UniProtKB/TrEMBL annotation:
CDD domains: KU_like. With LigD forms a non-homologous end joining (NHEJ) DNA repair enzyme, which repairs dsDNA breaks with reduced fidelity. Binds linear dsDNA with 5'- and 3'- overhangs but not closed circular dsDNA nor ssDNA. Recruits and stimulates the ligase activity of LigD. Residues 262-273 have a biased composition (Polar residues). Belongs to the prokaryotic Ku family. The lineage of its organism: Bacteria, Pseudomonadati, Pseudomonadota, Alphaproteobacteria, Hyphomicrobiales. GO terms for molecular function: double-stranded DNA binding. InterPro entries: DNA_bd_Ku70/Ku80, Prok_Ku, SPOC-like_C_dom_sf. This is Non-homologous end joining protein Ku.
Amino acid sequence: MAPRANWKGTLKVGELSCAVALYTAASTSERIAFHTINRATGHRVRREFVDSETGKAVDREEQVKGYDVGKDDYVLLSPEEVAAAVPESDKTLSVTAFIACADVDDVYFDRPYYLAPSGDTAEEAFALIREGMRKKNVVAIAQAVLFRRVRSLLIRAYDDGLVATTLNFDYQVRSAKDAFSEIPAMKIEGEMLDLAQHIIKTKKGSFDAATFDDRYEAALADLVKAKLEGKKITAPKQPKRGDVIDLMAALRESAGVAGKATKQNKSAGQKKTSPQKRARKPAKAQPPQRKAG
């Protein structure tokens, strides 16, 4: 069965336009969902809004939106007033510019949607827009009224269709400087950097979403199945945490050169130091490893 469109309208590039439909590309509907149950009766419970002071239930027609402007002081907005603030929609997805994909920082990416032609008469114009973007290796920035707001979208060619990703507003994206302000400036070089690069090279691969498992979802499914079958539920054993070792030792072990480094160090020491000198001046002991605690 064909998926249900979230939105239908017109994709417009200059004077070129075609009817399009927007479909959800990523959804959480397949996740396991739970209801809240009254343990004593086995019945589902329902949510009810109550007055925070009187404790009495408030009927839906008595509920209004309120903007907090101070202690117990609110600006009240009726449903009609809120609805009047929603921008009018002409059902048009208007392309404002074509840019390089790298020009948009991916922290602005919000939610992806599939964009497809709506109806046979739109297919040729849709294909023309798609292939033109693909040949020029660009993405489109467009705007439309979606879900009660004017939204900006990044549109790119994807297989036989397009993917339209809604973009976060600038005020929604927090400053990276605030998050990284306490990271000290450090210069990484020498063997440490060489080992890190070697590890990255040996771990090089390709992206395949099918290889990523939702372990929590799988564990919930197993738990529900075990309950249905009347099996005893046992908590899984927690993995043991290894000792904390120094960074260089961890890098060498990850790179598979821990043993080689030790042999090379010993060999170099034997060439530079005579047996008599070694007897009078023993090799410096390695510091003990720090243990987790």
